[in-house]
Amino acid sequence: xxxxxxxxxxxxxxxxxxxxIVAFAPHEESRRxxxxxxxxxxxxxxxxxxxxxxxxxxxxxxxSGQVTEETxxxxxxxxxxxxxxxxxxxxxYKDSIRRAxxxxxxxxAFLDVGTSGGIWGLEKGYCLMIGGEKDIYQKVEPLFQALxxxxxxxxxxxxxxxxxxxxxxxxxxxxxxxxYGEGFxxxxxxxxxxxxxxxxxxxxxxxxxxxxxLLELAENAFQKEPQLESIKGYVEDSGEGRWTVYEAIxxxxxxxxxxxxxxxxxxxRQEESFSAKVIAALRNExxxxxxxxxxx
Length: 296
Known about the structure:
single chain, alpha/beta, two-stranded parallel ribbon
């Protein structure tokens, strides 16, 4: 269920390794696309459950929040005792614990699977962080083996643990992206050196302590546009960074890097910062520091 950028490619990877897939998404073109590779496309969640042989395994790859909540509620009707529902999206881990408890009352098993890999997962595989009952995990382990690269999946704990680990994973990602962004901005601003950011990205990935897959992606981006001319500096957040900060506060764990990286995303969405205006005005008031005026 869910055939977007992640779900569609996951279906293709599973099909390539011999699994049989019944696929549903609201948009017909998404269903037609996976049918090209051997999936059976269906027009509704009810038809999806009817086409699966009991005990059924249904994997959701839909946006977290209301869509996941509604899909789960819809599926609890046709699913039966012994069936399994897997949530591979970025759900809040406490919601996953609640859903697992609800499904358990109906005899339906549940696994929360934090999934990382983005659009590259089809080729390279997905990193899977799996929470739930261990015996259920073991029954469907061949799915995880098919989706992940070598050493790329692990059972991490009881219900909620998979999404908890993925949440913190994404919080770390926020801070890493912020550090790379700030570093490349410093390099970019040193105009007299005419630095080649693609070349530097490539260089740092060979022996440097900051080498990473993200640097490989930076090299790709700078190859396409050396100055990122067409990209607006507006950065969304999908929720996991906020949840990680909330959890840090709840656990009394200092996490300044992740917290500031989240706040920087908020700053990126401002056409103009009012707080910066206040600071500029106050500096002018107490020290007559010059202020820049808007063009009339």
